[in-house]
Design a protein that fits this description.
There is one protein chain. This protein has 284 residues and is of the alpha+beta class. The protein has one domain (10-162, 211-258). It has nine helices and five strands; from the N terminus they run H-E-H-H-H-E-E-E-E-H-H-H-H-H. It has a five-stranded mixed beta sheet, sandwiched between helices. Helix 6 (153-185) packs antiparallel against helix 7 (192-234) and helix 6 runs parallel beside helix 9 (261-283). It is elongated, with a radius of gyration of 22 Å.
Length: 284
């Protein structure tokens, strides 16, 4: 089912953040309110400069102060944020040539009824990130032990899967380019300066992918920590179990990410070997 998005300007976005949440009367959603604000732009620098929205989100308890530091400092990584009144999850990709997103999800108890929770999500992302397509790749889980119910962390899991796929695809491209480069070095001795420039570019791509891989690993580990934190908080009165389906999906993505480590470790040696071959040809 398509999501009915409202297109808002900055004033509309701030008003949306300030508006008190409305209960959703559908089955299993009456005591849980879900709000998401997505900020997208073709000019990525616009995503780094959304102070007015950040200030409004902080004042309305959508985000904690730690997320403000994340955005301001351009920190790459993820973290679980716990306070007396809320629990949240934040993550932000490195600022590189690959797709960018920055996310803060917060679960707050907003009424005297401890089972009533308000879920808010603030997402900054490149313009070409298709949210509906993203969340359509994983079936929405329903295996939560009451009073736990499905929550916004599902979006984080979808982003993890997408991010692991992005890293894998870019790494496969780099591996292919290095193999092709090796074949060219075995042929004509001309154009060595061009080859040298390409090798330096491949080194930069490798560093970028290694940072992304570390981000993927960190994201998977911290998502599991967040699942456990929500479960522990809800279990103070009676034992509950967080979605095992989401646990398994995150573990699967971590395992898939682990398979990329061999190529990531091997590529610097291959690139360095090609550098030596170029230098040897120039000396001869």
């Amino acid at each position: 089912m398509p999501i009915n998005w409202d297109n808002l300007d900055e004033d509309g976005a701030k008003a949306f953040i300030r508006t008190a949440p409305q209960k959703d009367r559908r089955l299993n959603m009456e005591k849980n309110r879900f709000r998401i604000l997505v900020v997208q732009s073709q000019n990525r620098s616009d995503l780094y400069n959304q102070q007015a929205i950040m200030d409004t989100a902080r004042a309305s308890y959508w985000i904690e102060e730690e997320y403000g530091f994340f955005v301001k400092k351009g920190t790459a990584g993820s973290a679980v944020i716990e306070t007396d009144r809320s629990i949240g999850f934040i993550m932000q990709t490195p600022k590189d040539e690959m797709p960018f997103f920055s996310l803060a999800i917060t679960q707050s108890t907003m009424s005297k009824q401890k089972s009533d929770v308000d879920w808010t999500c603030l997402l900054f992302a490149d313009h070409d990130l298709n949210i509906e397509s993203l969340i359509g790749n994983i079936p929405f889980p329903s295996d939560f032990t009451p009073p736990l119910v499905p929550d916004f962390l599902f979006l984080s899991v979808c982003l993890l899967q997408w991010q692991v796929e992005q890293t894998r695809d870019e790494l496969n491209k780099l591996v292919k380019d290095i193999v092709d480069q090796d074949m060219r070095l075995g042929g004509s001795p001309g154009g060595l300066e061009t080859v040298r420039s390409e090798l330096f570019y491949m080194e930069r791509r490798h560093l970028m992918l290694h940072r992304r891989w570390l981000f993927d690993q960190d994201l998977a580990a911290n998502l599991k920590r967040c699942f456990d934190a929500i479960q522990d908080r809800a279990s103070r009165e009676q034992p509950v179990t967080y979605s095992q389906k989401l646990h398994r999906i995150v573990q699967t993505q971590k395992d898939l990410s682990n398979t990329l480590q061999h190529d990531l470790d091997a590529l610097p040696r291959k690139i360095q070997s090609q550098h030596k071959r170029v230098c040897s040809r120039q000396i001869n």
